[in-house]
Amino acid sequence: MTDSMADNRADNRADSMAAFPDWKSMGHRYFPLGVSMRHEFGCAVWKVSVDIGCSCPNIDGTIGTGGCIFCNTHGFAPSRRFNKPEVSLSEQINFGIRQLQRRYSKAEKFIAYFQPSTNTYLAPERLEQFCRTALGHSEIVGLAIGTRPDTLPDGILDMLELLSRTFWIQLEIGLQSIHQKSLDFLNRGHNYPVFCDAFRRCRQRNLRLGVHLIVGIPGEERKDILATAHEIARLQPDCVKLHQLYVVRETPLEKLWQTGKIRLMTLEEYAGLVVDFLEVLPPSVVIDRISGEADSLFLLAPAWSGTKHAARNAVQQEFQRRCSFQGIGYLSSDSLGNFGNCGNH
Ligand code: SF4
User: Fold this and answer.
1) Is 68 in the pocket of ligand 1 (CB under 6 A)?
2) What domains lie within the chain, and their CATH numbers?
3) If you take atom 8 of ligand 1, which residue's CA is the nearest one?
4) pLDDT averaged over the chain?
5) Confidence (pTM)
6) Cβ of 119 less than 6 Å from ligand 1
7) Cis amide leading into 302 (omega within 30)
8) For the segment 201-255, what is each residue's pLDDT rounded down to a tens digit?
9) Whose CA is nearest to atom 4 of ligand 1?
10) Residue 285 in contact with residue 22, Cβ under 8 Å?
11) Contact 272 CB / ligand 1 (< 6 Å)
12) Is the CB–ligand 1 distance for residue 149 below 6 Å?
C-alpha cells in the first residue's frame, strides 16, 4: 500500500468516527460501549471471553521473564480455565454465550474476545484460522483481539486488514501509561515509541483500535495521568479501557503490596482521576470500561474492586458533582454545541 492510499484510508476512518451517536442526549456522561454496540449492530452485543492458547513474549523470555507485575493470567480471565486441548474455540464460545444469556436476558449477539495473554503471538495463518472459526459462529458479529504493542508484526496486520474488510474486528493494545518510569515499574518490556509505531501501522491499515490504560500506577501524579490522557486524545483510538491497579494472588505486585511498598488508590481518588481522564478525551472515543474486574478467587486489593458497580457509581457521582462529561476539556467552546449543556442526569 502506498502512503497516500494509507492516508486516504485513515481519513475514511476519521469520517466514520465523526458519525458517533449523541450519547449525552441519552443520559450518559461518557460514551459507553453498550451505546456504541447498539449504534453499530442495532441490538445489544456482549463480549464472550475466549482463550486461543497463546503464550506471552514478556513471560517466555523472548522479551522478558516474569511478565507484567500485575499479571496472573488465571486471575484476569476465567476463560483461561478452559484452556485445555479438549475444549475447542467453538465450545468456549457456546459456553460463554450460554453464561451471558443466563445473566443478561437482553444479550442477543456477541463479540468473541481473544482475551488472556498475547493473542498475536503466533503465525498469521494460525491466528486467521482462529479468527475465521470465531467469525463463522452464527451468534458472533465481531472479534476483539487483546495484545501487546511490540507483538504486532506486519504479517499479522496485513491478515487482519484483509479480514476487517468483511468483518468487525478490533485490536486491543495494552499500553497502560506513556511514561517510561511506569512501564519499567510494571515490567511491561516495551516503551511508548513502540506503541506509537504499532498504532501508526494499524491506522495505515484502517484497523479498529482499542487502548488499555491503568489509572493509579504508583509514582504517577495527576499531571502524569493527564499527560497520558492528552496523548490518547491526540491519537484518537476507537475505544479506551481504563483499569485501576489491583492486586491479584501469585504476582510480583502481591509481594510489593504485602510488604507495604505500594499504596493503592481509594475509590474516591480513582473516580476523580477517571473523570479527569475522560474529560480530555474526544466525545467520539468509546469507553469500553472505566474499571477492571478480577476473579474474586484471586483478587486481594483494593477491596472496592470486588464491589460490583462501585467504580461506575463513583465516577457517575463525580461527573454529576462537576456538572461535567467526556470531552468537556477536549472540545473548544465554539464546537461544544449540544454537548455544552449540562443536564441533570
Ligand atoms: S503482556 Fe499481558 S499476558 Fe503478557 S505479562 Fe503483561 S499482562 Fe500478562
Assistant:
1) yes
2) 31-325 (3.80.30.30)
3) 71
4) 89
5) 0.90
6) no
7) yes
8) 999 999 999 999 999 999 999 999 999 999 999 999 999 999 999 999 999 999 9
9) 56
10) no
11) no
12) no
72 lines ligand 1 (CB under 6 A): no
Ligand 1 atom nearest residue 56's Cα:
4
11 has pLDDT over 90: no
Q: Name the residue among 197, 152, 172, 202 with its Cα closest to residue 111.
A: 172
Query: Ligand 1 in contact with 54 (CB < 6 A)?
Result: no
Q: What is the mean pLDDT of residues 106-135?
A: 95
pLDDT at position 140 is 98
Confidence grade of residue 332 (pLDDT, cut at 50, 70, 90): low
Task: Look at 80-84, 119-123, 287-291 and tell me which has the smallest mean pLDDT.
Answer: 80-84
